[in-house]
Amino acid sequence: MSSRHFVDRVGRGFTLFCLALVFLLTITVIYVFVSKGLAIFFINGISPAEFIFSSRWWPGRPVEEGGPLVGAGAFITGSLLVSMPAVAVSAPLGIMVAVFIVEIAPEWGRQVLQSAVDMLAAIPAVVYGYVGLVWLVPLIDRHLGGGGLSLLAGFLVLSVMILPTIISVSTAGLRVLPLELKHASYALGSTRWQTIRMVLLPAARSSLVTAVVLGMARAFGEALAVQMVIGNTREWPTSILSPVTTLTSVITMDMGMSVTGTAWNNALWTMGLLLLLMSLGHILVIRLVMRKEAVR
Amino acid sequence: MNALIKDRLATAMFWVAAGLVLFIMGSLVGYILYHGLVSMDWQFITLSSHAIEAGDGIIPQIFNSCYLLLLTMIISVPTGLLAGIYLAEYAGCGPLAEMVRVAIQTLASLPSIAVGLFGLLLFVNTTGWGYSLVSGALALTILNLPFWVMLFEQSIRGVPRELAEGSLALGATHWQTIWHVIIPSALPALVAGTFICSGRVFAEAAVLLYTAGMSNPPLNFSDWNIYSTTSPLNPFRPGESLAVHIWRVSSEGMAPGVRRVADVSAAILVLAVLAFNFAACRLGRYTQRRVTGHRGTVPLLPFPYKPTTFLKNDKIFSRDRD
Q1: What's the domain range around B216?
Q2: For labelling, which of A5, A20, B86, B136 has a CA lying 20 to 30 Å from the CA of B264?
Q3: Is any Cβ of chain B less than 8 angstroms from the Cβ of A257?
Q4: How far is CA B290 from the centre of its chain?
């Protein structure tokens, strides 16, 4: 075997080794989350239904009073209530801006918007949270009352935060559409709006779905920006101005205080496992949508 | 002329949407930079901070952020690049390779606070290092390594296949082709992607709260012996990064002095990430010119989920000859 073929083999082996390392790391993370996340059910004997639907949270309750209560229902609801409306607002807005960038804007408008989106994407999560805390929260308090730290504040911060994700992924999807689609539509006498609505948007459907799913993943998994503005009261929210708690914010606040192995800590790992399952679900949805598209 | 009126209305709607996003962006960035720059002065940045007293500086936090980024990159970039090469060039799209991709993508989209939980257990508690820069850097690596791998895989996939085919046809081995043809052609995208990822690492906070810690030991910036406990270079000391600093001071209540510290930190953080993005753009273009000899647009990849990856998976060809 000549030396260059030897190098060929070694190079291949070495890159495989690195990939195996990354894969091993992934498996380790997943294994730890699954094993620690299920401990609350098998070791502490909490039923999954209680964990998901109950909102009674008293993880430190002594055994003689009936043992720890770890109902995460209020947190799961909080996560959904903060992130879903944010996606519902940002998805249409983001897709409209993406269409504007690709189809409608004059050259200068395209450049201005593109850099605006890049700048929005460059703002770190803590800074979003900080601006929410010192600007938005007092504003809500002054005009709507209720102290300001609220579901509404979390929703607003998240909807701005996920905009750049949705815009940039949709823009990329719209850009790669074949030009012929548009030409054919115009040749048939369609207006620009008809072309966008009936030809371009359906053609780019898979990237638009990807954009929305990624935005949802980001909104659902965001910790600090949300934790800073939602008040973190561990009860069911009663109105849009009442404080809430999300899965991520509970983990943020309790992970430093709870001792490994206790029901409290195990409950946090179970929430972590929920987040892991959510991200797996997001990835699978995206792949499914893309696969369908590729087959068609 | 119903359709024409609808068309006009729709156009107006798109302009309004774009204006709204511009307005949000302008007021947000304006707010951050205005408040940050008003209260910024040189002394403020260079003095070291003591908890919450007014007029304290943030130089240790800036140093920690840079140091954490450096430690993370030393581990992630080579590993990520090599793993990305394997995924793009050798792995193909069989069921096993697809499973590896799904696993890596799942890890890449795992919320950072969950990775923080993992880091707290594994690096802080199990190894006994406590809150330290090493724990922080390793947790950052777990968070970002899958991201780098996907980014590098995509940058390498973006190289036109004709280049590789030409090289193989001339009798080069696959590794020679990768090393002398594919990597140089992918270099602009690799460089740009590296910088964009670095900005992400620099701005990350959730993962660091309980791994790198939320405090700084007294530091002596003239002590460069990495074994010394007061040396800024000692990787086994706790180190609060700039992003974590913003979170901590603003969750401790809003005294006027605190407000000022947080304002300046936020402005510096935003400017730093913008600088990373700017550098990504500039260096990408520079490399592009050096490598290809012409000015072209660098395929910037702000997101490793660009639709093309998934499309290509189905039509991937194998450059492997055996």
Answers
A1: 40-47+55-292
A2: B136
A3: no
A4: 25
